[in-house]
Design brief:
Elements (H helix, E strand, L loop, with lengths): L5 H11 L8 E2 L2 H7 L2 E6 L9 H10 L3 H5 L2 E4 L3 H13 L3 E6 L4 H9 L3 E5 L3 H15 L2 E2 L6 H17 L5 E5 L4 H13 L4 E7 L4 H8 L21 H10 L2 E5 L1 H14 L6 H12 L1 H4 L3 E6 L15
Amino acid sequence: MTLPTFDDVIAAEARIAPHIHRTPVLTCATLDDRAGANLFFKCENFQKVGAFKARGACNAVFGLDEATARRGVATHSSGNHGAALAYAAGRRGIPAAIVMPETASAAKKAAVSGYGGRIVECAAGMAAREAALAEVVKETGAELVHPYADARVIAGQATASKELIEDVAGLDAIIAPVGGGGLLSGCCLTLSALAPSVALYGAEPEAADDAQRSLKAGRLITDDAPNTIADGLRASLKPLTWHFIQAGVTDILTVSEDEIISAMRLVWTRMTIIIESSSAVPVAAILKNRDVFAGRRVGVVLTGGNVDLDDLPWRDH
């Protein structure tokens, strides 16, 4: 297991700078009032490909030597990492094969195709995704760039929290959603190096709560195919991300499907920005746990804004 270091984060920051945005940090008085806290939203919904995943994908792709790069890259993804890898591969001029579950949203499949990725569909569930990806790698010789259990990806994702720490002084806490744990692992790297006194929280759906159960049990617990509206958080931790999370995360908070939808709609209407359901999970967790965050300065990572506008979650609520 190769562990990324903060030196890798510094290298990643320089490597990806020509290919990503340094995203803004926004505030909202209404949400501050609802939370009883000062919230600072790191808006990765404004990132290239509409999600923070561009950071890790670009670091992985542009760190490849020429011989490896020529074979192309491959991954599995519910959407955002696949689009990010296709984007990065396109900028380098190499092929990208993306294994996607048949249940992935049409909008995210369209994004992957739009960036030039070749989609290989598979059944829902992590076992099916990993089996299909193994076949693609065997057939093509492509470099596997795992969505989160990859030191290069984690180092790239860590640049988001590094920017947040640099742009907002005096944070007491940071909260980010957790699916496979690549972003949260990157936050652990950043905070241990730059701001060890800042508490780090993860947020996940009650319907996909393997990270919370793992943290409580003190051992890695995985789910194969959890069903949640937060499609970007259906993945389970791997040993690499568990290594960081068990050591660096203060707590993991869970929220219901209705709480996710309500928080997503609140951000849309009060901040007038588009976030996807996975991004709403930490917002919902803050609103649900006022006693945890009251009176604190809290950084909130809004991970992405890729939404199927023909299938908005509050239509049936």
